[in-house]
Every structure is written in C-alpha cells, then in structure tokens.
Design brief:
Blueprint: H1 20-48, H2 54-73, E1 75-76, E2 79-80, H3 85-92, H4 97-116, H5 122-190, H6 195-219
Antiparallel strand pairs: 1-2
Helix pairs in contact: 1-2, 1-4, 1-5, 2-4, 3-5, 4-5, 5-6
Length: 220
C-alpha cells in the first residue's frame, strides 16, 4: 500500500497519556521513513546507472516507506494515529507533510517504472526525485522532532500523575497510622477486653509501614 492511500485517514480524537513504548514505535517509524526514502533514491540512481538489483531494492524501500507512513497516520492496534494538534498541523496544515510524502511516493513509483521500462523520461523523473528529496527530509525531520517532543511531554505528565498517586497513598497511610494509634490507645485503656482490638491496631500499623516502604521505593 502506497502513501497516497493515507489521504483517507481521519485525524484521531484526543488520547490519554501514551506509554513510552508506544512513543518508541512512533519515533522508530518516523525515522524509518527518513532512512528508507534515502535508500530508495540511492538505489534508484544506481539502477539508472545499470545496477542489476537497483530497482528491486528501491521498490522494497518504497514499500517500507509507505507502510511506515500509513502506520503513523492510521489509528490501529496500539498506535494512536495523528493524536495531537501539532501533528495534525504538520501532516495536514502549513507543513503539508502528508501531501509531500504522498507526492514523493508517487514520483518514486513513476521513476522506478520508467527506469525499469527504459523509458526516455526516466532521467528527468530521477532528477525530479533527487531534487524533491531534500525538502522531504526537512519535513520528515520536523515531524520526527514533534514525536520526540510529545514523548518528553507525555513522560513529564506520567511523572506528574505518578507523584499525585503516590501523594494520595501517603495521605491514606497517614490516616491509617492515626487510626492504628487510636486503636492501640483504646485497646490499652480497655485492658484484657481490648486485646483483640490491639492485635488489629498493631496489624494496621504494620500495613502502613509496608505502604511507606513501597512509596519510598516508587519515588526513587
């Protein structure tokens, strides 16, 4: 499937904080577009110079390029699609990333067909493809930078959320310690009749100690 099919993709709705492994996949796919686009052009040039497997290698790179682009735009499985306004602007706004990527893919396909068919326009198409490569890479670099920045932002949000949860746990533990302390005081005043109550209070105190240890470990 070539990148021009991605024009049918809708922008994904707002998503919750994404885990780090998802951003790893997104950044990897975005980087794959950069690598495969350069590999494609290199082997197209070599094919035009007579390298026997040049067209085959270039077509393989084009397939990887198109698939990576489609995976980044489409919301599927654990990938969120175009999940934020910065990406929407990069792909469909002023940067016109999606249009540039699809134009490159279509031109690459035409160029490889012409080289393979030994058509006269092959040289002109190849020159056009080479000229298009630099602005394409600029756009791909800008988009990859957005994924990296979003990864940092989501990591900070995750840390903020985690600390909020830890603070809630600490607050609950403090309240539980107070309950345990009061239970032990009441049990001591009740004498023999409060023995079982003292056991409960003591166990609750042990539990709050375990919670404190877990909180310290998590915060580290």
């Amino acid at each position: 499937m070539h990148a021009h099919s991605a024009s049918l993709t809708l922008v994904s709705p707002a998503v919750d904080i994404l885990p780090g492994e998802v951003f790893g996949k997104l950044i990897n796919l975005s980087g794959r577009r950069r690598f495969t686009s350069q590999r494609l052009v290199l082997y197209a040039v070599l094919a035009a110079q007579g390298k026997s497997d040049g067209v085959a290698v270039a077509r393989s790179a084009l397939t990887l390029f198109d698939n990576a682009h489609a995976s980044l735009l489409q919301k599927k499985d654990d990938l969120p699609g175009v999940f934020c306004e910065a990406l929407r602007q990069a792909y469909f706004g002023a940067l016109q990333g999606d249009a540039r990527i699809r134009a490159f893919s279509l031109l690459a396909q035409r160029t490889l067909d012409a080289i393979e068919g030994r058509r006269r326009q092959a040289a002109d198409l190849l020159d056009e493809l080479v000229e298009l490569t630099t602005p394409l890479l600029d756009a791909l670099n800008a988009i990859t930078a957005i994924y990296e920045e979003e990864a940092r932002r989501h990591a900070l949000l995750q840390e903020k959320r985690r600390r909020s949860v830890m603070n809630d746990i600490e607050r609950i533990a403090r309240e539980a310690r107070m309950v345990a302390f009061n239970a032990q005081v009441i049990a001591a005043r009740a004498g023999e009749a409060g023995r079982e109550f003292a056991v409960v209070g003591g166990r609750l105190s042990d539990i709050t100690g375990e919670i404190d240890a877990l909180v310290r470990q998590a915060m580290q």
